[in-house]
Amino acid sequence: MDAEGRGRSREHRHHGVGGGRLAVVCLSLLLVLGLAGGAWLGASDDAEDGGRDSIYKYLTLWEEVLRLIRGSYVEATDGRSLTAGAMDGVTDALDPFSVYVPPGEVESYRAAREVGRRHSGVLVLKERGTAYVVAVDGGSPAETAGLERGDIVAGINGRSSRAMPLWELRRQLAGPVGSELELELVRRGNSVDVSLTLDEFEPLQPEFEEVDGSGVLRIPSFGAGTAAQVEALLDGYAGDSLLIDVRGVAGGSAEAAYAVAGLFAVGELGSLVDREDRKIETFEGAGGLYSGSIGVLTDRSSQGPAEVLTAVLRKSVDADHYGESTFGHAGTLQQIELPNGGGLLETTAAFYTDPEGERLNGRIRVANEDRLNNLSFGEPEDGSDPVLEDALDLFILEAPAEPGQR
User: Fold this and answer.
1) Mean pLDDT throughout 64-90?
2) CA dihedral 15, 18, 19, 22 (to 10 degrees)
3) 3-state DSSP percent of the chain in helix, strand and coil, to 5
4) pLDDT per residue over 311-339, tens digit each?
5) Is the pLDDT at 365 greater than 80, yes or no?
6) Per-residue DSSP letters for 167-187?
7) Could you tell me how many helices (H) and strands (E) the chain has, helices first?
8) Class of domain 115-197 as given by CATH
9) Where are the domains of the chain?
10) Residue 360: which region, alpha, beta or left (left: phi > 0; alpha: psi -120 to 50)?
11) Hey, what CATH class is 207-331+349-398 in?
12) How far apart are CA 385 and CA 379, in angstroms?
């Protein structure tokens, strides 16, 4: 799936009993309008009728639609299934990371969240009912199995992913070590079968090398020790330019990304802010690690911490930006218990880039002249990295002759 063309308005998943898809579409639409219409991150800024009366109006309409469906739809319907499908549509309308978990599954999903990607190394999301691979961690079981960014996950262990809500899909990928998952993928129009064996793996560490007279810093993940590792790698480097590669980095610690940015930038770098505009945490940098020209290389998988680092460096040190526009989501998620025993995982706070208050809730775009992706070159068979090579060519051409000149 092409994440470059993602829209914030979405169609809704089709769930239900038997052939009750039309019913669920209606319910999802009504719930989205009523509930998501007042949500902090999912609401439209210029909505004309987002008040309390509007919410009750849509909920009343939902009740009437449900009454009509139960009285006249060709098949018998189950209210709980319809409501679960509608709630799935609500979370889909908020952002790709929000999830509704039904009663009875909350604890198992909480355990799956604690495992996260530690057993698979793959981030899978759903949009319009389609599951797709956002990112694959280097050195992970998913990479070993051959999963690639952009793969559509059509099925897991013989079951269609369309009928599998996001919480269940994530639980499958966070199963016990040794579990084997048979994945049916669609890759560039072709069907591909992949066997994924879940296992613990160590995230790759930052790497540094000099290529064609420029420093290249590759950060494959952001954790508690990333800033110290970057500082050690760049100790003594005095070249004119430094390109920081965060392609494929989705998830991890945003705090670690601010810490890395603070090695290069001085002063207040940004904040974590809740829906009441209260600063939960503020991040500052001392700078001084490197004074030459800085560039950042991203792709459509670059998400969360990678977006924090990109945005801060663009703002604070006028970093150049190459590759593809980023994924478009940097915030904190919280799982909230619902009265029915279910759970709602939603974005409850967002990261900002600087004191001026620019929220990181959209793609960070690359200028047309600096856009680069593998489609421009085809799939290299010799292990080369033409995107990196072209980014370096552009970066070195644009970099000032003397370090420190911005």
Assistant:
1) 74
2) -40
3) 35, 25, 40
4) 999 999 999 999 999 998 888 888 888 88
5) yes
6) HHHHHHHT--TT-EEEEEEEE
7) 10, 16
8) mainly beta
9) 3-94, 115-197, 207-331+349-398
10) beta
11) alpha beta
12) 10
